Amino acid sequence: MRIKKIFASILSLAFLLSTVGYTSYVYAEEQATVEEEEEEEELEFTSAVITAVSCAKEAEEKGTFDVLSSCPPHAAWEGVKDIYDENPKIVIFDVTEGEYFYVKPTKDGVYWSDLLEGFGGSIDGTAVPVGKKGDIVVIKFTEFEITPKPKPGFFKGCL
Fold it and tell me: Is 68 exposed, middle or buried, given 0-12, 13-18 or 19+ CB atoms closer than 10 A?
């Protein structure tokens, strides 16, 4: 009789230990799911146009992208009262999705000077959303490559 109680105790202990181990596996699966969700939030851009907010709004309203290629650089400063203390109003327009995003410049990512130099050109890279400014999503680039707009007369010798 006593051996049966000892055997039952050992079986109970073995069962408890096996469920504790099972719980840790479930926790690991839940954690992996959270990491997958974070990966889904990463946005990829291919040839997204660097432009002013006013030009992006106009392109979105009209449904044509001609405005983006002819957007003047001074449009990025429209509504800015002090160019020394305020940032330009530059966005990244994803032509494939028809959406535009504010960019959060960072010391380990893209700078305002990079965006101004590449204004009218395109940007390729990956970014993550970091917030919202009004109705527009703010993104932070983790990797990027800017292709500046070709200078006038660039294709002159090609013909």
Answer: buried
DSSP 17-30: HHHHHHHHHHHHHH
- The answer to whether 143 and 125 are in contact (CB under 8 A) is yes
Residue ranges per structural domain of the chain: 1-40, 43-147
Alpha helices in 41-101, H assignment, sequence order: 53-62, 66-69
Cα distances from 155 to residues 34, 119, 150, 151, 159, in angstroms, run 49, 19, 9, 9, 8
pLDDT digits (tens, 9 = 90+) for 44-92: 999 999 999 999 999 988 888 888 888 998 899 988 888 888 889 999 9
C-beta of residue 45 within 8 angstroms of C-beta of residue 120: no
pTM for the whole structure: 0.69
